[in-house]
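Course assignment 3, question 2. Fill in each field.
Student: A.L.
Task: Predict the tertiary structure for the chain below.
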Amino acid sequence: MANLQGKVVVITGAARGVGRALAQAFAAAGADVAIGDLREADAVATAKEIAAKTGRRVIAVGADVTRIEDVRKLRDAAIAQLGKIDVLVNNAGWDKLRTFLKTTPELWDKVIGINYRGVLNTTYEILPHMVERKQGCIVNISSDSARVGSMGEAVYAGAKAAVIAFSKTIAREHARDNVRVNVICPGLIDTPLLDEIKGEEFGGKVIGAVVNAIPLKRLGRPEEIAPLAVFLASDEAGYITGQVTSVNGGLTMAG
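Answer field:
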């Protein structure tokens, strides 16, 4: 695994699921980690467990990424307690499967707020710190649905596609500042959120059909996303920016 000794990483939505695996992997690679999550108690428990296991400094901040004041609190805590921010991983996400005409404007606002506006908020508040230091890396967790569409995920897929376009633009605008931006698009990953989706009749049918179509014939695991994120944040990936990579068991093979 890449060496991130001395790096400080901020990860959103890291109390559970993919975010938790990301926090574990970054700490194992030598980084200090600031976890931001709406589930503050779970985030604190995760931080304590990872710190005890890895010996790294790991802090937890209760933060709703849709609220820019919460994002500022996360940024300020990371800088005050860990000294700087080298890497931002925008992982926080949420979805509910519905065909588009069965969604509501209220659902649109929630899905877009968490999955896209949250990325805008964190980038807006943390990127200036990276620009000032003339170094930094952003890894945005999008979704394979953003690349090819997905049944029952019209608004989610649209928001995650916006993350890809936004990431490429920031990569272009801030290459001169030695700030790199890349995107990971997971396929179906075995997480608590996926369990919630499968628990509903429509969601369960869609997920079941998709799993059958995966060439590797299984769900992905959160720890199978983390190594790519660690690599993209490392010096070994110093010539990689503006790129989009899927981790999906072969479900889609987008060029």
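Instructor remarks: The chain has a mean pLDDT of 95. Strands lie at 8-12, 32-37, 58-62, 87-90, 136-141, 179-186, 244-247.
Grade: pending
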